[in-house]
Amino acid sequence: MMMVRKSKGLGERHQKILDFVLAYQRENRYPPSIREIGEKTGITSTSVVNYYLDQLEKMGKIERDRRISRGVRVSGANSSVDTLRIPMLGPIAAGIPLLELDPNVTYLTDNESNAVEIARSLLPSKENGDNLYALEVKGDSMIDAMINNGDIVVMKPASEARNGEMVAVWLPRDNEATLKYFFKEKDRFRLQPANPTMKPIFVKKSEPLEIKGKVVMVIRKMDKPLAI
Amino acid sequence: MMMVRKSKGLGERHQKILDFVLAYQRENRYPPSIREIGEKTGITSTSVVNYYLDQLEKMGKIERDRRISRGVRVSGANSSVDTLRIPMLGPIAAGIPLLELDPNVTYLTDNESNAVEIARSLLPSKENGDNLYALEVKGDSMIDAMINNGDIVVMKPASEARNGEMVAVWLPRDNEATLKYFFKEKDRFRLQPANPTMKPIFVKKSEPLEIKGKVVMVIRKMDKPLAI
DNA sequence: CTTGACACAGAACAGGCGTTCGGTTATTAT
DNA sequence: ATAATAACCGAACGCCTGTTCTGTGTCAAG
Q1: How far is A99 from chain B (nearest CA, A)?
Q2: What is the mean pLDDT of residues B190-211?
Q3: A20, A121, B32, B136 - which has most CB atoms within 10 Å?
């Protein structure tokens, strides 16, 4: 039989085992047993699998909980990363009214076909992640909020805001939805575009202004090339 | 003995088990055994744990792989979501040169203290996720790319680009780094700002222009309120 | 009161699974 | 050539673990 002795680092079988454990974990959401690892990597003896697992552990590539079945895990790599499924509730555009949302209702995020998956670590630190929803921006009307056509905005239901927070507001005056930084001043509201080169909008406190939510995140995928 | 019969839905023990499995999974990265569930939830008999697990499965709250040790997982909830750890390699600003990156080197994403976690489903569809890195934008110089101070840009190493792709370029002419849509024209390159109201930059093909990478994603956290 | 569904407990069984040990072959150093 | 070592294999041992079966006390309906 031919056995190649790798000078250092990961040999072929090390890599195969590592890949398999990772793939298995991803698919089944629990780690494989030693025997399963052996079967899928062409190792017939459980002791050999154990032999390699010991080495991988010494290399720091995996961690093991001895005497516990399926107690293998790949170090560092994925899993354990807390992700949220945030439902995509629809589009947002200048001309169309914003959705009416009850801040006290949890919108189903399980089995939701159209959802955005976001690692909790990506959210603003104090955000607990409850009741978030996502909207897809249609059109170029949000440019002064530094938001493009196709961007995804993650929002939190709210009907009021503190100074300096970016909110989605509906302006009955102009029949328009917009995203702006919100400031309350003496007798008016100042709606400040994110783009510092652009001028704010002022709305008198006597005029109607409906805050629909706070913007938590903006995500832009550079999916397809610009066609200009 | 006192036993409360819950009319419907999850009883106290259902919830306890569900919470424990979730917490255990998060901590150990593999599911608990039936006996472990019992111990920690105050159930002395394995059959009773099994009894509840069966119910939880019928409710669709968990999934089980029978006959497989530790074959429990909580439906819907986290895990299984394929996340990438993308290393944050530093800041990007107009005045400072861009990092020199070798597209063939994988930058360690394990044990990386400073990394961005992104669900694979969030990436552009054809992106495989290899060799990505992230930069944090400093300053307002990228405003014409619709990118703010504090934004995170996810990049892929590249030294050339196709028309319409957004790239990070270093312009020795102006001693400046910038993010623009890239277009090759007859005898010049056109660097088009993402903001359609702004004018493009033209660079003659004879002049130097270094493409340092393609922009894959932009992420903006609305962390702290605007202070203006 | 009886009956049946429900919520448990405990024990026993069988297969799953990690571990260990004896043994073999190939590679490398002496 | 020989010894040491690394890379295997197979089998056996014994705990781990899911499953199943019997039994008990509670509660509500008939």
Answers
A1: 21
A2: 87
A3: B32
